[in-house]
Amino acid sequence: MTRKGRADRRLDLIAAAHRAIIRHGTEGVHLNHVAEEAGLTSGAVLYHYPRLSELLVDAHHAGMERFYEQRLKRISGMRDPAEKLVVTIRSGLPHGPDDPDVRLLNELGGAAPRNRMYALLLTTLYDRQVSLYQSILDTGAALETFRLSGDSLLIARNLVALEDAYGYRITARHPVIGPQEAAELILDYARTATDNPLKSSH
């Protein structure tokens, strides 16, 4: 098998582990579950990942990319801090109650109190999201696009906390809080915190 082939196979296994975690839970998933999702034998899975725990960590990390790396790429070409802030807020929420990436994060959160590695992954993601928001806020303040109501770090932490809270409500199928409603609720806080109308097209 070529090196490229092995890399592709590992990506396939990460995707299979992602599906298995959602189906069986972070603490309930076993090697045979991943193998079944991948259409392989357990031995074939172990050939690429001798330890299931390493595969599960990679699957969780891959699921998190959307909430930092992909958001960062999405706003990298934008100049207007207000536009960046709106896009960042909207892209941090679930697409709907069955959003697989958010369901994966929920599974990770449930296991984090008993698993130091999962706790570290979640803490790192949180800190990176806060830094992303803080950078946008500080740039907006420097350009006088924003007039911040307080410390940028505190505002950034609140924005991430609101994302998490409303994201949970969406996945819990709250009858009146969907992605659009949640985004508007977070934007309402952001408008007050930045003294900017933060207008956006849906």
From TrEMBL:
Keywords: DNA-binding
HTH tetR-type domain sequence ranges: 7-67
Protein's UniProt name: TetR/AcrR family transcriptional regulator
InterPro entries to which the protein is assigned, alphabetical: Homeodomain-like_sf, HTH_TetR
Domain of life per record: Bacteria
Gene3D superfamilies in alphabetical order: Tetracycline Repressor, domain 2
Ranges of the DNA-binding region feature: 30-49
SUPFAM superfamilies: Homeodomain-like
Keyword check for DNA-binding: yes
Record carries keyword DNA-binding: yes
Pfam family of the protein (one): TetR_N
